[in-house]
Amino acid sequence: MAQIIAEVSRTFNEFLLLPNRTRTGCSPATVDLRTPLVRHMAGEAPAIELRSPFTSAIMQAVSTPELAIALARNGGLSFLHHNQPVEDQAAAVRQVKDSGAGPVRDDQRFPDRLVDAAGRLRVGAGVNTHDYRERVPALLEAGADALCFDSSDGYSDWQAQALSWVKKHYPEIPVGGGNVVDGEAFTFLAEAGADFVKAGVGGGSICITRDQKGIGRGQASAVLDVAAARDAFRERTGAYVPVCSDGGLVHDYHVALALAMGADFVMMGRYFARFDQAAGAKLPTRDGFVKEYWGEGSNRARNWQRYGQGGSRGLVFEEGVDGCVPYAGDLGEGLALTVAKLKTTMVSCGSTTLPEFRSTARLTLVSDQSFQESHANVTLRETVS
To answer: What DSSP designation does 273 have?
Structure first.
């Protein structure tokens, strides 16, 4: 008989944060958004620390070299997609690493930029469980700072074997695993050597895994469960393995909820696909401009390496769709607004660091009526210029 999990599968929309006391000196200017990207022993500094808790999804429509440069300049990290020849992905890594070289430095313009010991912008790269033996060496030679196995379901022997191979042959390179939705799967990947673990299955805005396969979990429930397993793993082993919340982030405040629930950083696709630096074409519509956005599980992506259904002939069935998102201009300007919202939320919750936010945040469940009350309830007036 199938096991029934009693807990309801919950989303970010079902929660709100309760304000905590805001003390003197707790202001947006004093908020520190640094957060660990990779495994480290409790009490020790991680090898790579994000200046801002944002990473971009391992997607063709999202993580271009241009977006990776812009995001690193703003303290985050991109993972360049692997649904391309090895040499092309390696060239994209080099493009990002070389962008910070030469006599022109952008230290003053981008004080929070994420750089390596040589002052070059950091960049990550996605890998798969099919050709990692050839792809990983090429990406490391090109200068990739971190890798991440990309799978809609990371709770598998294939990923554990691939993680073990990378850690055996290239122990110096951080490599993440995922995606998972519960503590058991987190522990499985952490014990296999994952340096961070992505939580989330089926919550992406262009993902239809739940519709097609009936597999997944509400993102809030997934993050809470996986974060609890991370803390238990730290208590048992002394090793802290960061958690990335991937998917289900529709509104800016969802980022704050994910971090309050235990995520160390978030990964977003739709959010970054809206910006100039993303790969999708900018198209005019009657209501304004939009950007193309498609899922890695869509026929457009033809990502047989991730989904493995139809080989070069394409997918037997899709786990993602092809659509558009509202155009949002430059990444730097858009991310600055999201960061400002996050900092003010943390201040209202009495926190100036992400660890403090996680340990002191208070959450309440939201009824349908309470959710409706959260939104404007007037007829908005349009002005004519």
So the answer is: H
